[in-house]
Amino acid sequence: xxxxxxxxxxxxxxxxxxxxxxxxxxxxxxxxxxxxxxxxxxxxxxxxxxxxxxxxxxxxxxxxxx
Length: 66
Description:
Layout: E1 5-7, H1 10-15, E2 20-23, H2 38-57, E3 64-65
Parallel strand pairs: 1-2, 2-3
C-alpha cells in the first residue's frame, strides 16, 4: 500500500525508512502557517495535499523527497 510521510524534519523520515517524503512547513504547524490569511493558508495546505497525492501515484524504488 503506497504511503506518503509528510513531516517537517526530513532526516527523521529518512531514518525510519519512509519511501515517499513530503517536507512540510514547521514543527508546530506542519500543514499550515498561522501568520497567513485564511485564503493563503488554504492555498498552502491544498498545495501540500496535492503534492502528496502525486507522490502516492509515483513509482519509487528508493527513498524519494518530493
